[in-house]
Amino acid sequence: MVSPPPAAEVAAARLCFGPGLRPLMNTHGHPGPPGNSGPGEGEGGEARKLQGGRVARGKRRKGKGKGKAGAGQGGRGSGAEGKPGLQKAKEAAGLGAEAGARAGPGEEGEGGGSVEEGARRIVLGDEGSAGAGKEARGRGAGKKEEWRVRPGRREDARPGRAQGRGGQAWGCIAGAGAAGVAMAVAAEEEAAAREPAGRPAAGPALLRLPEELLLLICSYLDMRALGRLAQVCRWLRRFTSCDLLWRRIARASLNSGFTRLGTDLMASVPVKERVKVSQNWRLGRCREGILLKWRCSQMPWMQLEGDSLYISQANFILAYQFRPDGASLNRRPLGVFAGHDEDVCHFVLANSHIISAGGDGKIGVHKIHSTFTVKYSAHEQEVNCVDCRGGIIVSGSRDRTAKVWPLASGRLGQCLHTIQTEDRVWSIAISPVLSSFVTGTACCGHFSPLRIWDLNSGQLMMHLGSDFPPGAGVLDVMYESPSTLLSCGYDTYVRYWDLRASVRKCVMEWEEPHDSTLYCLQTDGNHLLATGSSYYGVVRLWDRRQRACLHAFPLTSTPLSSPVYCLRFTTKHLYAALSYNLHVLDFQNL
């Protein structure tokens, strides 16, 4: 691209940055209208001589054609086409045309003028003589380039000629303002932010190590050191967000989604984010809320599955969908499952079915995604507990029996085994390997309230514990693995049993500080344990690596004292069902 002459360069600079410079002058010495002035003000040495010569040659041929400069009418020319002086007339008008193109098109009725007028302004702009003005309104030589101004449209004669003179580049400079520069800088910064951070080319020798070796070194850092290292640069921030570095820390944290055996239950969520939320569990930082309320006292039970909550109210089971924050529900239920004549005491979710136990002595089987419902008489008195795994249902009742049932649709209601427990059955759970099940009874006899039975034959396999006081009934029991389980109840203790170590004594126990009955428990499969007490709706969090309670959350006041009938939690929220309300503790959105 050819560089513009010095005079045009000065004029282009004034067009770009010239609020304080002299305005352009027309042929009468007055400020020229926008869009018609040339690139200079008539003060460029060589450019002025060149243009002066061209204009003089044009004057000699002024009798051959007449041009009329119309202000605001676009300077329509009417000379004869194809005359010998055409090429020179075009050259004489060329620089004026490209100057007008650089300055920008003028408004209709305000930016008119002929091509010759633009050329003369370049030469005589500063002089403002009347004679030059007459020449601008005079006759044109030969066929000249026309600027046609129509309503709402302006056509430039030949933009290619302006490109040949380098006018296009300087026109871009003239058209770019401070706002355009700012937008360009902002776009560049945004593009740089989207680019993946590259490893720094210079810096400490640590940053130049292979990534595998750097991962090994950083694996010895604790959570705080990794957080500080991430503040050094963008590359280290990306590097220290790797799940491999946080996995070891997450396994030692509370409720981070990892089991005791290292299984990741929430692989879709970054480990670093889960570790951040787990610190709120450790410190007891949360926000309390109420999801549902009831008009009369209930004994609700609930289950979680994906983004849905299932909760029993009287003789119904209602399904609600969580909103994206997880701390609120859509008020309209997704489904209502009925079939019992009395209150639902307990229910579980298995194989897209809801298996419910009612106070009417019946077991109900509901398909979640259809209206299929079957209920059959199972016990002589209320069914207090039920569990289902691998197509097998087990139930326990106040009538001092436990029964085994198939889930197959063709065999519903056919009892496989009836076990005489000689005591009221409050809780029941099937082993993960489907070889046995455990019952928790009221402990009113001369035997242990925890007993394990063979699932296939219904025969007693073993008793757990030997030092239970009378009345130490087990209200909740759950398997954590095929050889470990947890229990709680009227004796105010949470006990952890390992069948590989001993069946006579528990491995670990935690005592409720206020000697309250423990109605329910829940674990993350690793270090966190949550329990629900019988008074004031107290929810306690325990770290299983220590005996003392970690945090306590009373969810009711004295006039509305209620047990916590059921507990469930995710990595971000804890849900507690009481007599009148369903409470939530939000550990993420503080």
Automatic annotation (TrEMBL):
InterPro entries: F-box-like_dom_sf, F-box_dom, SCF_F-box/WD-repeat, WD40/YVTN_repeat-like_dom_sf, WD40_repeat_dom_sf, WD40_rpt. Residues 56-67 have a biased composition (Basic residues). The gene is FBXW4. SMART domains: WD40. This is F-box/WD repeat-containing protein 4. GO terms for cellular component: SCF ubiquitin ligase complex. Residues 68-82 have a biased composition (Gly residues). Residues 92-104 have a biased composition (Low complexity). WD repeats lie at residues 376-411. Residues 134-159 have a biased composition (Basic and acidic residues). Probably recognizes and binds to some phosphorylated proteins and promotes their ubiquitination and degradation. Likely to be involved in key signaling pathways crucial for normal limb development. May participate in Wnt signaling. It comes from Leptonychotes weddellii. GO terms for biological process: SCF-dependent proteasomal ubiquitin-dependent protein catabolic process; Wnt signaling pathway.
